Each structure stands twice: as structure tokens, then as C-alpha cells.
Amino acid sequence: MLPSSLFTIENLKFLDISNNLIGSPKVANSCLSESIGAAQALVELQCSGNQLVELPKSIGDLRKLEVLNLRDNKIRDLPDELGLLSEQLLKLNLEGNQLKVVPPCLGNLQRLSDLNLAKNKIRDVPADSLINLRNLVMLDLHQNCFETFSAVPISNKLDTLNLAYN
Questions:
Q1: Would you tell me which of 11, 39, 105, 106 could form a disulfide with 83, CB atoms 3.0–4.6 Å apart?
Q2: What is the tally of helices (H) and strands (E) in the chain?
Q3: DSSP code at position 41
Q4: What's the pLDDT tens digit per position in 37-83?
Q5: In this structure, are strands 67-69 and 91-93 parallel, antiparallel, or unpaired?
């Protein structure tokens, strides 16, 4: 388990806790705790290659967070509080998780430029889920399980859309 004091480092802007079995049932008390919300200076969080099933709600308290990499975990859903990062989050990588739907909170992330939802289990992209992402440049949805794809973000900046292998 990560010590909660780690998140109180006043000037911590970049944190890479990738590939540490965080969230693994085999490692006692291994999770990303609510204390992460205390890392007020954090701009980039790299948390790929762990075994996270969920994120703490306090993720929404990271008001300076611009880059969040959660690739290759086991996340099934995202907390609504992630949508509180609407003014600053630019890049979100959720590739290789267990998402079955596009979480509604993503629609609040208006500054998002890069969104990677590849290699999940998404069957549908509801029409209103991505419509507010007007700054999106890259959207990767390859290797999902689409039955329908009814939403395309209204972004004049979108230059990369990957829908392969669905």
C-alpha cells in the first residue's frame, strides 16, 4: 500500500506508480486510497499496469491534473467525481480495462484532447456521452465490442478516430 504521506508532498507534480500490483487481491491493503486527493499540485499521474478495479472519489480533487494514465488495469466504472476535472484534464488513457459503457462523467471533460478507450468491452457509445468534447483531437475506441456507435464528438479539432476491430 502506498503511504498516505506520499500524497502530501507539497510540490509533487509527476507521480508514476505503474506496474506495482496496486489493487491486486494478492497484495494486502493494496489500493489507490482516498488520500490521493491531497496531492494538490499533481499534474500527471501514471498508474498503468496495475490491477485497479475502481478509482477513489477523491480523484476529482486533483484540480491541476492534466494527464491521467490508467492503461491496463481492471477498471469497470469511473466515479462521477472524475468529471470535476473538466477545466484541466487534457489526456485520459483507459486502454485495456473492463469498461462496458462509456462512463457519463467523461462528457464533462471539456478540455480533453486525447481519449483512449481501446481494448475495453464497450458495446455502445450513447449519443450524449461524447458530444461535449469539443477539444478532442484523438479518440481511440479500437478493439471493443460495439453493437452500435451513435455518437461522434462535435470537435473541429478531431484528426484521429480509431474504430478498428469492433
A1: 105
A2: 0, 9
A3: T
A4: 999 999 999 999 999 999 999 999 999 999 999 999 999 999 999 99
A5: parallel
